Amino acid sequence: MHRRILALLFVLPLLLAGCKKSSTLAKLEEKPPVAPPSVAVAANSPASAAPSPAATPAPIPAVDRSAKVMVLCYHRFEDSPQDALAIAPAEFRTQMKQLKDSGIEVISMKDFLAWRRGEKSIPPKSAVITIDDGYVSGYSVAWPILKEFGYPFTMFIYTNYVGVGGKSITWAMLEQMRDAGVDIESHTVSHHDLRHAPKGQDYGTWLHNEIYTSKDILEQKLGIKIVAFAFPYGTHNEIVRKTALDAGYQALFTVYGQHMVIDAPADQLGRYAVESVHPDVFKMALNFGANDGVPPGTEATQLAAAAMVTQPMNEERIANSRPVIKANLASMGEVEPASVEMRVSGYGIVPAKYDPQTKLVSYEFTQNLVPRTYTVILSAKVKGKRVETRWNFTVDPSANGAPKQAAARGA
Fold first, then answer.
1. Which end of the chain offers a freer environment for a tag, N or C, measured as fewer CB atoms within 10 Å?
2. What CATH number has the domain bearing residue 330?
3. C-alpha 303: how far from its chain's center?
4. Each residue of 130-158: pLDDT tens digit?
5. Do 124 and 211 share a domain, yes or no?
6. Global pTM?
7. Into how many domains does the chain fold?
């Protein structure tokens, strides 16, 4: 018995040690295998990191679709203006201050087009400043004044006039303006009335060159993208508009002043042609309550259906540089006499006289018209609804014959 107790005391520690060893081995076997160093390094690399949550898309900007825009059109800036295309620098500076004092924000062409695409909002009353043709005074006179106010602006250039001396701007000047952020756009190659090709030229080929080549020249010379186009004299037709849109222009501008809404037709965006001899044009542009937000095309759907007898006739060439503009409004119906308004491209509203008895409206120019094409726009209210018609004539000293009468086309 004594021997058995001694044997048990000897064996028991060995049994306990064996159990402990078995337990430890079991625990070691339960641990996951240690990854090799290369795997551990990969685990800490960016490629195996937990995927980050998807970026939150940028919110769509809130666009004020009720905003209105008017576009101003200038040409030359001279101390003693001698014709309708010029304005005195002092008057121009005063007008720029009036924009600020009237709470009208001057925006860039880029922002104007972005607003139209629904990509950016603009102030409720906005203005775009444009300068046509490519006179050097746009560089030497207007630009310094616009810098004073911090106003962006656009230069509409017709390429044949660049660098020819005299009053023309140079390519070096345009490069300097481009580098400073001035917007430069197209105004054709030759500044010819786009509705008619020069004598002896194929219309389609010539028109393509005027619209496409001017764009290409500006883009190649200045390394920019041309997106806007201004019709010479503001005149155009369906073929001209379609050709320009096909060429990739996003906005086509006339000289028919409007306070435009966001969806104004891209192929007939109005501008107020401002000159020293017609100060009322700028006053009208400042007044966002007058003809507010009526885009070209809206009134064109309300035209009088019947033909209107006019003088000069539509598309007539006349030698008289001081013509009498006449039209019989009988085809419009019972117009409100006080609402009759006549506009002439390059002059804005003119003080035409209307006789309710004869239905005739007339205006006689008191100064010589320069040889070019003019657009006459007549509007009036009939039973509270605004109606409009327009026609064109050209002052050409070489034209023969007396003025004729013919039916005007609606716009």
1. N
2. 2.60.40.1220
3. 26
4. 999 999 999 999 999 999 999 999 999 99
5. yes
6. 0.62
7. 2
